Amino acid sequence: MADAPAAGGCSPQQDYPTIDPTSFDVVICGTGLPESVLAAACAAAGKSVLHIDPNPFYGSLFSSLPFPSLPSFLSPSPSPSSASSSSSAAAVDLRRRSMYTEVETTGEAPEPSRRFTVDLVGPRVLYCADEAVDLLIRSGGSHHVEFKSVEGGTLLYWEGGLYPVPDSRKAIFKDTTLQLTEKNLLFRFFKLVQSHIAADAAAAGEGEGEASGKLPDEYLDLPFVEFLKQQRLSPKMRAVVLYAIGMADYDQDGVDSCDGLLSTREAVKTIALYSSSIGRFANAEGAFIYPMYGHGELPQAFCRCAAVKGALYVLRMPATSLLVDEDKKRYVGIRLASGQDIMCQQLIVDPSYEIPSLDMPCTTPVSNSPRKVARGICIISSSVKRDSSNVLVVFPPKSLEEEQVTAVRVLQLSSNLAVCPPGMFMAYLSTPCTDAFTGKKCISKAIDALFTTKASDDLEGHSETTSENNTEGVKPTLLWSCVYLQEITQGTSGTALSCPMPDQNLDYRSILESTKKLFSDICPNEEFLPRNSAPKYADDDSDSSEITR
Amino acid sequence: MASRRRMLLKVIILGDSGVGKTSLMNQYVNKKFSNQYKATIGADFLTKEVQIDDRLFTLQIWDTAGQERFQSLGVAFYRGADCCVLVYDVNVTKSFERLNSWREEFLIQASPSDPENFPFVVLGNKIDVDGGNSRTVSEKKAKAWCASKGNIPYFETSAKEGFNVEAAFECIARNAIKNEPEEEIYLPDTIDVGGAGRQQRSSGCEC
Hints:
Chain A is α+β, with helices and mostly antiparallel strands and 549 residues long. Chain A has helices at residues 33-44, 70-74, 131-139, 169-174, 180-206, 217-220, 224-230, 235-245, 264-277, 297-308, 436-450, 460-468, 509-522; strands at 23-29, 49-52, 64-66, 91-93, 95-96, 100-107, 117-119, 126-127, 147-149, 154-158, 161-164, 288-291, 312-314, 319-324, 331-336, 341-349, 353-354, 371-380, 391-395, 408-414, 425-433, 452-453, 477-488, 496-498. Helix content of chain A is 26%, strand content 22%.
């Protein structure tokens, strides 16, 4: 990495290439998922795009890193205060901030450490039927990434044990822990929601449609937890539906948590997505899929699509300042670490850059207390669920301790995703929080509930035998863990757009929603990654070969 | 199971900008050549059915999409390659000298299980230019380098005239087939959301 000594503007400029041309419609800094999707979308809309990244790899805050690179990414050495290359009146320095704080690591790094790939956005999955999948297909990005199922399904931590979430008719039927009345109520509830979803889909298809089966608005406007109570679901079944299927973040029974209260309308949408995800791909089990080699593959897929559409890519190229027009009203370009100035109509930067505010009316919604998410990354020796590779675990609020107001989600991944060597598992945890203490305590408690730590060496001798007869009672051994806090900022618009951060959600829906909004700011009249934007020889009639179907 | 993956061979073409990577692909797959140079736009990969010793394979040839210009190919591009083709321009010494770093870049990024024996093929392109008079890299020099890197097969080609292109790609295909599949992590249950990606569709995937 270019850790140039801050010795008066004499950075090793010979290492940086010169970019030609020097003017683009759009310049994008950072190759996180939102930036990469925007690059693909802008290129597909016919814009000329320059896409740069200071790192030697793709993904920025959405990367999957080789294990040895994680510490320096989470706690970067302070960047040399951008060796102000004759900071003219027409340029303002661009600074980077670290999004990660309170990084705490335990255990020894397992070997061979390069075979572990670490997500920065975990725990995260895609719904088989969600927009991220559609975007991949529409853009042609699906050629560059393959997935596997979270085939072990979802487990709910309830009364000190892990309970397999019954998410289908069959699963409810087979469940041996539920009483008959509980089963009937749950059946009835799902049937009610399913017929609403069907009616809703029919109505959407035809404008006016069958209203029968649709839930009345008075139900849809209810807090979802109230609706579930009306349906007489037991507390355990409510927890299943709220936290393990509806993916609510905050305690829905809490009196003062109006903020995170899930409405029936929202919840039903998530359930609809969940159920349309099941069975979408014949060889997918369950609703969730995970990209082989980690989430960092997704930005790369979109960057490749952008490149195929003509976007120019330059890794290892930091930006040092933003260029401003005469009136200091607009950003009109960017100064690269090479000293070269690139002009553009639109600047887009990843959220690790601080956009200096100009004398212009600020369209940036400034939130006074940034949201945070506490994340954990663990390497463990066996699976939390026997005979399952990839599993989601949900700790509903209050399941770890009385004061716990947020749900904790855990995603366990196996070597079949090529993210770790055989015989090992990765586990990602996250929970939204407002302060470091609460967030990290929650994560730690969840880690303790799921795994055991072998603190001393004298236990090593037993490890062989325990891992072999890994019965239900034996918890996986925690080999290594890292817990940290990440700030969450929203995407903001202006003459320089800032893209959204990886949020606390399990999926990309909200990030892609903001990304779409940013795109409509840049290209108000263009369709966002239209269906026919999958790459083919479009520019040369003689070359109309069949590449994609 | 293994046979399913082996039906499809991923070949990637590396080399400096302007050495003729896209032209070679186009000549081989489409039997076409365009003198007009444009940094690659529009090509993701080309596919061609090949028959080798009575067996049918699909050769999937991946272009760099211009991302090689500033050495900005992502690790995902290199993954799962069965053969790596290194191309240089016999009239540009620099492009020959850069073959070594392209080879090393490939081995680092793709990290094949057996780097010593991973199949490369080297193509010295544009031998037609100026009737060979502007040539700066001799065949001998190129062959010596190939020999020093574990006897990499070497071909001199002209994408423009179609010279030796067919033979080169047949060699590429044969070498790709020989590449033993890595651990069976691709199989049997990867989900290809696009329905027709780098993997042959498994039975009953149409839904």
